[in-house]
Amino acid sequence: MSMSTGGLSTSRLDRMHDFMAGYVERGELPGLVTLVSRRSEVHVDVIGTQAFADPTPMRRDTIFRISSMTKPIIAVATMILIEECKLRLDELVDRWLPELADRRVLKRLDGPLDDTVPAKRAITVRDLLTFCMGFGQLMAAPDAYPILQAANEQQIGMGPPSPSTTPAPAEWMRRLGSLPLMYQPGEHWMYNTGSDVLGVLIARVSGQPLETFLRQRIFEPLGMKDTGFSVPEASLDRLATSYWTDPQSGQLLVYDDPRGSQWSRPPAFPSGAGGLVSTIDDYRAFGQMMLSQGKHGNERILSRLSVEVMTTDQLTPEQKAAPSLVSRFLDDNGWGFGVSVITRRDDIAAVPGRYGWEGGLGTSWYSDPREDMVIVLMTQSAWASAAPPNVYFWTLAYQAIDD
Q: Each residue of 142-176: b (16+ CB within 10 Å) or e?
């Protein structure tokens, strides 16, 4: 069993390859790319094709829709503005987002939209970063509650990423502002919407379009040349076809085709919650910057202190008791700013302090300070179940450690 300088077993990495290739051989996925980096030694594995119907091989620089892996990047952008003192963590957002001033809050989640009380306090920047603004996605049928039905009708991003249907930022904020909050600000962890609001906040505070700010402050310094809210014409041949699973038949159906893709043109609303596309090496650069406590080569994106606060569990037990997106998810995980943080060691890959996040269209990233690892998985198939392939992926990545 030969060991690499990164302390990984080459024969155990082969085991990982064989297992992951099985998903493609059985036709469960068209293709995938895996990346395991330890002590800056990088192992990338490229398997399968970019689409079921198209023999184009998967490439190391294939572009994927990373959906919720946008959230950690948006949190970093917010922290850049906090370090410049253009924002403060506990500042009220009303000044920048007047649409969210004077909130009304539902008396109960399943109640009518006009049965409300005034918010006990205004929403803060911290509430947005920790997903405690009082509004977010619910794991329920679209018409399960009046508030959910209203939010879906407003097309403000209560489901999977859909760049072609979401209105421009000012109109998006107006629509969100027309709805009551589901809970009092600071009361409960509620997924997703906070990151979209942060995207609007970053643009208004910086005086730049969100994409421009991200490109200048994060993507260009990190060399993330294929990361953005849309894919240029010349690169569309590298955009994987995106699939989702039909709940009735269990078949993988096309969610977004590169030809005429929703990501083939800049969106009206650059979604901070789920709008970005990226490649495995681009995202590794981001994950390695986080692992290097804000540094990338000679560039410093954030101070070490900002990365430490981002990757510390920020939630109280009361905030975790919300009707959260994933049942029991917050039992073994905390939430920092834009990232999940492992808090309990109950599995081979559950290393406390490991942080990162998943994208619902088939991507995952975690960085692990204790083991000095960055681990990324990119597939083009949305989660098919509560136990997607990435559950085995984490075990396989960690079983390869050989020291």
A: eeebbbbebbeebbbbbebbbbeebeebeebbebb
Torsional sign, CA 321, 131, 224, 226: positive
Strand partners of residue 403: none
Structure tokens at 179: 């709805």
For the chain, 403 residues long, give each residue's pLDDT as a single digit of tens: 577 778 999 999 999 999 999 999 999 999 999 999 999 899 999 999 999 988 999 999 999 999 999 999 999 999 999 999 999 999 999 999 999 999 999 999 999 999 999 999 999 999 999 999 999 998 888 889 999 999 999 999 998 899 999 999 999 999 999 999 999 999 999 999 999 999 999 999 999 999 999 999 999 999 999 999 999 999 999 999 999 988 888 889 999 999 999 999 999 999 999 999 999 999 999 999 999 999 999 999 999 999 999 999 999 988 988 665 555 677 778 999 999 999 999 888 889 999 999 999 999 999 999 999 999 999 999 975 555 677 789 999 999 999 9
pTM value > 0.70: yes
CA–CA gap between residue 35 and residue 33 (Å, rounded): 7
- According to DSSP, the residues that pair with 270 across neighbouring strands are none
Sort residue 33 into left (φ over 0), alpha (ψ -120 to 50) or beta. beta
Tell me how far apart the terminal alpha carbons of the chain are, to the nearest angstrom.
12
Handedness of CA 248, 254, 255, 260 (dihedral sign): negative
Bridge pairing between strands 31-38 and 373-379: antiparallel
Q: Dihedral sign, CA of 313, 314, 317, 318?
A: negative
